[in-house]
Amino acid sequence: MKTELSVIYFVESQPFFSVIIPAFNRGHIIGRAISSVLGQSFQNFELIVVDDGSQDNTGEVVKQVGDERVRYFYQTNSGVSAARNIGANVANGINLIFLDSDDELGEEALAKFNSVIHRGEVIQFGFVKVNETSSILKYPEKNKFMSKLPGSFCIKRDVFKSISGYDERLAYSENTEMFHRLSLIGVRIHEEQFISLRYYESITGGSKNRHNKIAGLKYILKKHDKTVSKNVKFLYNQIIGVESFKVGDYQMARYYLFKALKIHPWAWKCIMRILNTYIIQSSQRICSKTEKN
């Protein structure tokens, strides 16, 4: 794998945080993510940008930042999980924080992480979903079967390396899979209600993202079949069913919704979703016959 160092920063003392941003063709937007990190009141950090084979001006934008704390690496396109792992491998920080190139680290996030870092090997904060005008769309809801996915999280570098980082076969749900492995080895995960991330909802890639989500959860269910709880299996099967429904694959939707129903037979929402697949398919057949006549 080709890795190119464009900006080298020799630190006098080890940075407390390494903030890692993977990026692919994000020249038009990555400046926002970088600024959100550089503007933190807690300053003992390095910022690592791993360019995952961009064909736009991502590299130029990063190099123009002109801050010695910013380190830029280039790799041939290998996926977001591989990019994050590269960032972790070259990181000097005691703790790692991963930030997507189209999101923003919340104000005072690093200071807050620093204040509670002693409470666990992994510190997990919440997020708020916003649109491109920065209007709040929604706050995350906690599922009764599993903790909400982190908006941003801080993990000790040695803990991250002890589980070999991210599974590079995943393009979606990679955090979910990694957190499951962390739980299996008894890592202390401390949750805080502090909003540490502004997550920008994308208006593009909807269908592709749904297919990636389906593939990711299928992979997790297969890989961790013996260690995932029944309640989490119920949740994942139901999510796969719902996402399959949204992309128009009603047969697969029913298959996974029925699998969920076997775990919790009286889940009425699951039953209604199965019925909806039959209703929509029947309506489509009627419309098709009408058009032919």
Automatic annotation (TrEMBL):
Residues of the Glycosyltransferase 2-like domain: 18-141
InterPro entries: Glyco_trans_2-like, Glycosyltransf_2, Nucleotide-diphossugar_trans
Protein name as it appears in the record: Glycosyltransferase 2-like domain-containing protein
Short name of any one Pfam family annotated for the protein: Glycos_transf_2
Classification lineage: Bacteria, Pseudomonadati, Bacteroidota, Cytophagia, Cytophagales
